[in-house]
Amino acid sequence: MNSFQKKGTSFSVLEKELKSVMERDRIWENGKTFGFVYHPGNEIAQITSMYYNAYMYNSNLNPFISPSLRKYEKEIIGMTAAMVHGNSKVTGTVTTGGTESIFSALKVARDYSREVKKASAPFEVILPDTVHPAFLKACHILCLNPVTVPVRKDKRADPEAMEKAITANTILLTCSAPCFPYGVVDPVQDISEIARNKGLLCHVDACMGGYMLPFLEDLGFKIPIFDFRIPGVTSISMDAHKYGYAPKGVSVILYRDHELRMKQFFIYTDWCGGIYGSTTFQGTREGGPMAACRAIMCHLGREGYRKLAKEVMETTLKIKAGITRTGVLNIISDPEMSVLAFTSDTINIYALGDALKVRGWNLDRLQFPKALHMTVNRLNVGKEDAFIKDITELASSEKLSIKHPVQSELTSKLADKLTNLIPEGVIKNTARLTGSILSDNKLENGGMASLYNLSASIKNRKSLKKMVLNMIDGMY
Ligand SMILES: *Cc1c(COP(=O)(O)O)cnc(C)c1O
Q: Could you tell me which CATH class the domain 51-297 is placed in?
């Protein structure tokens, strides 16, 4: 029911409410969540809060209104380009997140191909099937045809298969450093070389690795080159709000030169409201996240990022060793940094995820194959021993063996059959109800296994899509 109160709520009531809701929402502070939140630690976070608050009401749309924000943006781009060995021609913009950075790179590829290379629609973008869904979302919005190509056995993009997928309509090859699901870095060198030989653009999605891999390389870890040192790489996306430890709402999209970047801008000169120019997808742009991002990048410097990367990587290596030591869990491929996934032939992996959740640990779920996923970050440092102890105990538990199919697996097998039998309206309403139950957090223990088993085993992907659509609508 929609309603809006007549009298306002007092400062003190809202202050109290904030304290109580945050207790639950800041559960990640205990360091038992792997992913989503990238926090540099309370001491360092003071610098982000100070700048964030100072610029909360500023707008970065008109460059003449808040000149310091324009300066900060240039500094963020300069520092970020330096991390990935961009020469003085490399430039970019600050965006709101990885999704917008990827959207921008695809828009630039489309407009550059159309205007400079005189290519015509339908435009095709070649994507390894491990790329982030943001690429598919951008293709959808920009009316581009996504051409997904299966990755190799080691879960890295397959340059040969990508080359074979090139047609006269191809405008862009893409790859990840690393991909989100398995944390492995694609063979950027080979893929970008193919693009260069064919006169195509090549985008590297370093949303996850951009603020981590350069420092791991400094520390002596074996990291394949993925950046502007490779001549065929024409754009790179990097999320400052992940391992850059900026607050949420900051990513950077870098281009090899200004000619490419200008294809991102939008100018309208005929409006009665004045000449309108905008550099990103947004109109009014927030000042807080950008100011805070620039502050933390200056505050940490190369040494600060290196120190954080070292701590995170040491924790990751311990966790990887602990997982392997269980003897029943297998890490997928050989991830280069702090993102990894693991499966099992003998234990019920989603049930393990739920059992870990009961002990307070939050891991992501993957499908095809069913796996658990971890993004290790600064908050997890120091929690590795407790995590390894718990996962070792659970991995040897007879209850989680695949010999005993869990209730949720049976339910999902049944559900798959039912989706073909039950009238659509019933499925729709059930999905909406599930969504609203989920949003009340009533399905916490044991719930995710049911949901993910359901998703991974339903063969009718179209009806699953509809169910998820209704579920989300129910949640909101
Ligand atoms: C997080 C991520 C994205 C999307 O970024 P958002 O900030 O969530 O929009 C894209 N690619 C990769 C590899 C990511 O890890």
A: alpha beta
